[in-house]
């Protein structure tokens, strides 16, 4: 009974102290923007916590690699989320949506780097594709690598290079697999 009460207290504490993003459904642009800004702050704070946790767990060489990868990711995020000629209120919502998406993906990537578990969508996709006799896992990875190689986004290419270097060091992940999983989530 004591164990059940302890579990209940821990669950309630987590539920009451964790900030969660909300679904923004209003039709008023100002309210939608405020909601999206709040959601971005939530995912950005979560990313910051994961980043600082990984920094605390890392040695000097890994810290330097993490700092370098984070700098290239920030440049990639900022260039990717620019409105691209769009103007008006919708442009700011598009930008916030992009920032939220890329920040959540980076947060997932840092979790993967920290504990070696994650990126389940990519690995599930590979497993699903491999069940089809007409699809070879190597072909799927090859197509993703081809997309990366043909990318003209230098910020993206630099981020992938830095991140895969670190992933190789921390998790002994194959370079092609790293490039493939990052490209999978980009598209």
Automatic annotation (TrEMBL):
Domain Lysozyme inhibitor LprI-like N-terminal stretches: 32-110
N-terminal signal peptide: 1-21
Pfam families per the UniProt record, alphabetical: LprI
Keywords of the record: Signal
Protein name: Lysozyme inhibitor LprI-like N-terminal domain-containing protein
Native organism: Caballeronia udeis
């Amino acid at each position: 009974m004591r164990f059940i009460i302890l579990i209940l207290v821990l669950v309630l504490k987590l539920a009451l102290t964790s900030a969660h993003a909300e679904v923004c459904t209003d039709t008023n642009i100002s309210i939608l923007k405020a909601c999206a800004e709040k959601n971005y702050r939530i995912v950005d704070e979560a990313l910051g916590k994961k980043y600082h946790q990984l920094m605390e767990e890392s040695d000097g060489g890994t810290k330097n690699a993490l700092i370098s990868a984070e700098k290239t990711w920030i440049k990639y995020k900022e260039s990717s989320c620019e409105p691209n000629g769009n103007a008006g209120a919708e442009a700011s919502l598009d930008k916030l949506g992009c920032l939220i998406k890329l920040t959540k993906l980076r947060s997932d990537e840092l979790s993967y780097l920290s504990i070696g578990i994650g990126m389940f969508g990519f690995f599930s996709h590979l497993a699903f594709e491999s069940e089809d006799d007409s699809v070879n896992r190597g072909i799927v990875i090859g197509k993703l690598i081809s997309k990366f190689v043909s990318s003209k986004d230098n910020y993206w290419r630099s981020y992938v290079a830095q991140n895969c270097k670190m992933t190789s060091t921390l998790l002994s992940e194959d370079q092609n697999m790293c490039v493939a999983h990052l490209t999978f989530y980009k598209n």
